[in-house]
Amino acid sequence: MTDKNRAITLTGGAGLVGQNLCAKLLERGYNNLTVFDKNQFNLAILQKMHPAIRCFEVDLAEPGVWQQKVKSASQVIMLQAQIGAKEYEPFQRNNILATENVLAAINPESCHLVHVSSSVINSVADDFYTRSKTEQENIVLDSGIEYCILRPTLMFGWFDRKHFGWLSRFMKKTPVFPIPGDGKYLRQPLFVGDFCDIIVSSMEKRISNKTYDITGREKLTYIDIIKTIKKTIKSRTILLPIPYRLFDILLRIYGIFDKSPPLPLRN
């Protein structure tokens, strides 16, 4: 029988996955949840929606008293991730140092870890995000802690502020929406609710020292995804295919004005 009173800690738990996962865990009767996150805005939303959850605004890259709370957890779900930034330092802090601090606090004799990695581990991409996520996963593998590693692909769902959510907001602001290439490359977007079910199952079955690649079932082209977003939000923007090189240049220009670009920039 699953112990619904066991202490569960979610690090970086106020983002897309954390918001949905907390709701899922509460629905399933888990009542001893602690969330650490440094995003004050997201954390306030989580606390307002679920007052029973213990929420703490914490920078996991800085060692602190929060580590004592992690030490008492029998289940840690590690979600913290830096996705976009112009320099490597935020990736180093949030994907590497934060992970080292969390793992250092875990009691390996009593705790099970679910680490949310990324499908970019399997890609040929070479950017700050891919490098740091690869190093992060290796740190988990070498930690000696009982783990289950999940590598999700691009996700969508409620509280999606960086993926499809960002695309839809950008589409509302611009009369022309650039499409790199012909847009016919395949994607398998993953519904965050389905991914949360997988996390809960991995936790309840205490899957030990396994790594899984997680994708959505349906294969869609990028252009079809963009057309669906356009139809859903009733946008009149023009979809304009452009060469990859030009798209890369435009993305870099956009990055000059945006402190936290939504996509990893090649360097």
Keywords, separated by commas or semicolons:
alpha/beta, Rossmann fold, 7-stranded parallel β-sheet, two-stranded parallel sheet, 9 helices, 19% strand
Query: Could you report the average pLDDT, rounded to the nearest whole number?
Result: 92
Distance between the termini: 50 Å
Question: Radius of gyration, rounded?
Answer: 19 Å
> Low-confidence runs (pLDDT<50, min 5 residues)?
none
CATH superfamily of the domain at 8-160 and 188-214: NAD(P)-binding Rossmann-like Domain
Tell me roughly what share of residues is in helical segments.
40-55%
CATH architecture annotation of the domain at 8-160 and 188-214: 3-Layer(aba) Sandwich
Number of strands: 13
Instruction: Say what the CATH topology of the domain at 8-160 and 188-214 is.
Output: Rossmann fold
Reported for the largest beta sheet, the result is: 7 strands, parallel
- Spatial ordering of strands, largest sheet: 3-2-1-4-5-6-11
Summed up, the helix count is 9
CATH class of the domain at 8-160 and 188-214: Alpha Beta
**Shape verdict:** globular
SSE run: EHEHEHEHEHEEHEEEHEEHEH
SSE class: alpha/beta
- Proportion in β-strands: 15-25%
What does this structure look like?
By secondary structure, this protein is of the alpha/beta class. The chain has a domain at 8-160 and 188-214: Rossmann fold, CATH 3.40.50. 40% of the residues lie in helices and 19% in strands. It is built from nine helices and 13 strands. The chain has helices spanning 16-27, 40-49, 66-71, 89-105, 128-141, 164-173, 192-204, 222-233, 244-257, and strands at 8-11, 33-37, 54-57, 75-78, 112-116, 147-152, 155-156, 176-180, 186-187, 190-191, 210-214, 220-221, 238-242. Strands 3-2-1-4-5-6-11 form a seven-stranded parallel β-sheet, sandwiched between helices. Strands 7-10 form a two-stranded parallel ribbon. It is globular and about 55 Å long.
